[in-house]
Design a protein that fits this description.
The chain is mainly alpha-helical. The chain is built from 3 helices and 2 strands; from the N terminus they run αββαα.
């Protein structure tokens, strides 16, 4: 029996307490003015910083939802690109 793992570690965990489940993405830093912005307020303001007016990036899905009525759109399947369209063969 190891006294560090059996006695000291539980005492330290009791003092420190258990980690709370806090998501890592609650805040975002504005690249324009370096202000910390709360993510929900930023989304309500359409990804525009309230202090400096800097427009932050939107994901493609969010952009399509904002462009089309009620977010109703359909993705079009694009044919796969041919690997060698010229059928080039090296002579050497």
């Amino acid at each position: 029996m190891n006294w560090l793992s059996n006695f000291v570690r539980p005492k330290i965990r009791a003092l420190v307490g258990e980690k709370k489940d806090i998501p890592d993405n609650l805040w975002e830093k504005c690249p324009g003015c370096s202000a910390m912005l709360f993510r929900r307020e930023l989304e309500d303001n359409l990804n525009v910083c309230r202090s400096c007016g800097h427009h932050l990036k939107l994901s493609p899905v969010k952009r399509l939802e904002s462009l089309f009525d009620d977010g109703a759109y359909s993705a079009v399947e694009v044919p796969k690109v041919i690997v060698d369209p010229l059928k080039f063969r090296d002579q050497k």
